[in-house]
């Protein structure tokens, strides 16, 4: 991970020196809305993939469930996303980008808090279903509005570079945060092998911190788009 971060910093210095000739124009990140969109997608992907790693591991190793049963128990998260996605256009028009993503981030944070409680006190599958549904619905309400705001904030001729930059950064979020959560879980489990609930509780606690950061970043998104392809209103 340290080597990857070093390479990332070195590339940033090289791209800054190359300017327009670089694969990604770093000047795009000078825009407040685009930077907020990129940061949101980075944390959103991190929360999504870290949670998709932690929950099954907890259910299998912490609760002693079989993998096939765990697969069924993960279903509410997908259902939450499926309930949110078809309503994105209508909800964004009615509430605006910032309010919608704020509510989504809070719902996902509430779901993550429930996971901490369940890890420390014992699994209750009805609460688990509610927690996963909240996370799925909440995160489903963030991605599309955030990306729309980011793309609307750049010039039309910069869209290809902006798309590349956004895709690269958001895909970094998944492995980085999954690794951090796995390291937290592994370190606690090896130090206290008979306190699995505490280890999983701390790992889910880190996931809560990630969701809290996601909420703070969505506060920087614009209130709503001015018009289709016409930029955004910071508010």
Automatic annotation (TrEMBL):
The chain crosses the membrane at residues 39-59, 71-88, 108-134, 199-221. One of its GO terms (molecular function) is transmembrane transporter activity. InterPro entries: MFS, MFS_trans_sf. One of its GO terms (cellular component) is plasma membrane. It is a multi-pass membrane protein. Keywords: Membrane, Transmembrane, Transmembrane helix. It is found in: Membrane. This is MFS transporter.
């Amino acid at each position: 991970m340290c080597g990857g971060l070093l390479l990332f910093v070195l590339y940033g210095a090289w791209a800054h020196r190359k300017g327009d000739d670089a694969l990604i124009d770093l000047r795009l990140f000078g825009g407040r809305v685009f930077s907020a969109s990129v940061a949101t997608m980075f944390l959103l992907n991190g929360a999504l993939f870290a949670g998709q790693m932690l929950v099954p591991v907890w259910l299998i190793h912490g609760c002693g469930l079989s993998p096939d049963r765990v697969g069924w128990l993960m279903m509410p998260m997908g259902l939450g996303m499926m309930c949110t996605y078809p309503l994105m256009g209508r909800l964004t028009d009615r509430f605006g980008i910032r309010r919608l993503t704020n509510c989504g981030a809070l719902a996902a944070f509430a779901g993550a808090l429930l996971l901490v409680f369940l890890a420390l006190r014992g699994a209750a599958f009805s609460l688990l279903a509610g927690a996963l549904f909240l996370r799925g619905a909440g995160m489903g309400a963030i991605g599309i509005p955030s990306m729309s705001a980011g793309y609307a904030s750049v010039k039309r001729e910069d869209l290809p570079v902006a798309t590349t930059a956004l895709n690269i950064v958001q895909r970094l979020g998944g492995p980085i945060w999954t690794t951090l959560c796995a390291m937290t879980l592994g370190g606690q489990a090896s130090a206290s092998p008979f306190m699995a609930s505490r280890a999983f509780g701390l790992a889910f606690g880190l996931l809560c911190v990630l969701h809290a950061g996601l909420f703070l970043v969505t506060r920087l998104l614009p209130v709503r788009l001015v018009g289709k392809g016409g930029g955004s209103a910071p508010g």
